[in-house]
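Re-run with default settings, no changes from the original entry. Doing this only to confirm the output is reproducible before filing.
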Amino acid sequence: MKIMCDTNIIIDVLLEREPFIEDSYKILKLCEEHKIDGFVSASSVTDIFYLVRKYSHSTELAYKAVGKLLEIVKVCSVTNNDILIAFQKKAKDFEDCLVATCAKSIHCDCIVTRNKRDFGGFDISVLTPAEILLKIR
């Protein structure tokens, strides 16, 4: 299974956000164990770095977090074409549209997110961490 992890899945784990951390951690653990192929978009990596630094007040911690992330998931490039496709959709949330566009361009089976409604209308399967965990068992 090939999944695109939404930024909130990663941030839930890195910032230990309750009650979301447990299922999100399990998803990342499956990626780390190569039981599923996990991806994040290149644009998500910069968002993750920014958010970890903002909430931890530590650039060093942000680098450590991104370093660990890069050991667990692969980074999907964001191409000029991806940007153009997402831009032309004029979606309410450009970032989510770009993540969906990237997921489709690398043929992911689904996007894993806590906010399924943010990805409605992008013609790709969207599952919560709990739904993925049930599907894999």
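The chain is about 60% helix and 10% strand. The chain has one domain: 2-136.
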